[in-house]
Amino acid sequence: MPDKGEAKTLAVEELSFEAALAELEDIVSRLEQGEVDLEDSIALYERGNALRAHCEKKLKGAEARLEKIVLGPDGARGTEPMEL
Fold first, then answer.
1. What is the pLDDT of residues 10-24, one digit of tens each?
2. Which of 20, 38, 52, 84 sits most deeply, having the most CB atoms within 10 A of its CB?
């Protein structure tokens, strides 16, 4: 698994959910501290937005997979929506 420095050089689509979320948390923390200049803030915001979308896509995919797993006494019996 790449460390934080390596994760930032990877394309967002190549990151696991966990790596993307960790990088997103780091970006939010840096932006909240307010010690980043304007150009870097914009770049961080853009990267953060891409990471958010990637995490959301991964979560929706996992949710769709879970909806397919519904077991009854006779085994799988179709799909049902997952309740959160």
1. 899 999 999 999 999
2. 20
